[in-house]
Structure formats: structure tokens, C-alpha cells
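New here. Your pick:
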Amino acid sequence: MNTSRREFFKVSLLGSAILLVGSSLSAIALANPSTKNLQKFDFLQASDADFLLALAPIMLKSNYPGVLAKDAGVRLLMAVDQQIITLGEHSQKQLRQLFDLMSSTTFRYLVGAPTSDWNVTSAKEIESFLQGWKNSLFSLKRTGYASLGKLIIMSWYAQSENYLQAGYPGPPKIYPSQE
């Protein structure tokens, strides 16, 4: 195959244009303006909060919001944030990648997640997405599902107000010895 210099430049220019457009679209998709004030959190960002609050009612079912009522969302986010801070650096990086993936409409589409904003996505769509990840042929999706489930459920039931929902009477009481 004998290509001329003109054809080489045309193909190079076309390739550069495609790369420029692709990188611009992904940058736009990742840029999600923050609507919430999350200064009190060490790890979570606004898009993470929307994602977690959309998943919570589906994963926790009738136990959410429970006795915490209107404070349930904030309390859950605080507990999740504290759980993540206790994890190792590698686990935190993986969770950050997962949260960043779920904040991008473009990437959500590629992994089978709803493309609408999490705060307006229907419960049926979220349930379908979670079931798809839970039963996926790809171990990465199953691991993502398990990680999110454990993170949300552990954070929810670690709060003393939610002990009874899990049938946990609370930590053992320590009585002083009677000597």
C-alpha cells in the first residue's frame, strides 16, 4: 500500500479531531456541578451522595428511612463516609473510581446503569440496574454490586437507632464486678 503525504495528513487530522471530540465529551460528562454542600465529608462528593441516596431505598427496602425519618439520608452519608475513611488506600481508590464512573452519564451507559441523574431515576430502573450487576457475567460488576451493598448496609445498621431493625439488641452491657 502506497499512501501519499496528503492522505497521511488527512488521516492524521481526522484521528486528532476524533480524539479531541472524544476527550472533550468525556470531560464534559465527568464534570457534574455540585449542588450540595458536602464540606463535612472527608471522602464523598455531591455526585456520590446522589448515587448513594438513590440506591439506599432499594437496598434497604422497608427499613429506610425507618426511625431516622428526615435525617436518614444525611446520617447514612455520614456513616458511609466514615466507613470509607477507615478503609485502606487501595480500597478508597477503587471506590473513587466506581463513584466517578457512576457520576458520568456516558460511562454509566457503557456499564448498563441508568443515564438519567440519580436523584430523578425511578426505583424500577435502579432495581433493574442493581439486579443486572448482581447477576452479571462480569466479576467486576458483581464485585461493584457487593461492595456497594456491603457499604450501604453496614453503614445503615451500624447506627444505634437501626439496631432493632436488624434484630441486634446492641453491644453488650458491661457491669462492674462486685467484689
Remarks:
- Confidence is low (pLDDT under 50) at residues 30-35.
- Residues 5-30 form the longest helix (26 residues).
